[in-house]
TrEMBL record:
Protein's name according to its UniProt entry: 2-hydroxyhepta-2,4-diene-1,7-dioate isomerase
Superkingdom to which the source organism belongs: Bacteria
InterPro entries assigned to the protein according to its UniProt record, in alphabetical order: Fumarylacetoacetase-like_C, Fumarylacetoacetase_C_sf, Rv2993c-like_N
Keyword Metal-binding attributed: yes
Length: 260
């Protein structure tokens, strides 16, 4: 099931995406009564997908991100694979949705893309045992951990480098029926492939990460875990169109713009 969050005429709601580009009339949204973090009903009121604005599929209280979770990515930046996961936060204000502009920050001259599988939490959870991890996950979406690399190198904490406004595109929707253990992860810039990896290459699995994170903190419905990026990261410039595609989910596309 693909669950999207959208706006139409100033109203925000969730809906289930039905059909695809090959379907007669194109894909549609069946509006959800309420929200997707509990049992829900479909309203039967359907809207063409191309008539609404897709938003980030959830509005998390926090985005918990993982650094250096692919060995080749750690190596390309001159780092070792860490003994424990590198955990950092991206604020909710960093989110943007499909086709939203990514604003190049004024304080950086080296902004990179990082295509990532994003885990969406479906229920309040703490101290999750490995055998219960699947029970607390709503589904998965595409993420782009956009990073001001020069700032990351120059500042001890990564808050500004990875937390600036629009540095966390998410979307286009949450796929709830997916085995995330071996999915293709790709990033293109202006149609040219820059990253290509598989989630099976992650140093620590989704299960490892949920267990590790919830040892320390409570995760709330809608919270997001970014699971790390494959090798091949590189620069973005104003005017670039960056797209993250994850097997079984879809494609998240954003354009880089200059700050007004």
């Amino acid at each position: 099931m693909r669950i999207a969050r959208f706006s139409l005429d100033g109203n925000v709601a969730f809906g289930v995406v039905e059909g695809d580009a090959e379907t007669e009339g194109g894909p549609v949204l069946d509006i959800i009564k309420g929200h997707p973090f509990a049992e829900f009903e479909l309203s039967g009121q359907k809207l063409p997908l191309d008539k609404v604005r897709l938003l980030p599929p959830v509005l998390p209280s926090k985005v918990v991100a993982i650094g250096r979770n692919y060995a080749e990515h750690a190596k390309e930046l001159g780092n070792e694979v860490p003994d424990a996961p590198v955990v950092f936060f991206k604020p909710s204000t960093s989110l943007c949705g499909p086709h939203d502009p990514v604003t190049y920050p004024s304080f950086s001259s080296e902004v990179h893309y990082e295509a990532e599988l994003a885990v969406v939490i479906g229920r309040l959870c703490k101290d999750v045992p490995r055998e219960r991890v699947k029970d607390v996950i709503l589904g998965y979406t595409c993420g782009n951990d956009i990073t001001a690399r020069d700032i990351q190198r120059s500042e001890l904490q990564w808050a500004r480098a990875k937390g600036f406004d629009t540095s966390c595109p998410l979307g286009p929707w949450v796929e709830t029926e997916l085995d995330a253990s071996d999915l293709g992860v790709m990033c293109t810039v202006n149609g040219e492939q820059r990253q290509l990896g598989r989630t099976s290459e992650m140093v620590r699995s989704v299960e490892d990460l949920v267990v590790h994170i919830t040892e320390a903190m409570t995760l709330l419905p809608g919270d997001v875990i970014l699971t790390g990026t494959p090798a091949g990261v590189g620069p973005l410039t104003v005017g670039d169109e960056v797209a993250v595609t994850i097997e079984g989910i879809g494609t998240l596309t954003n354009k880089v713009v200059k700050r007004d």
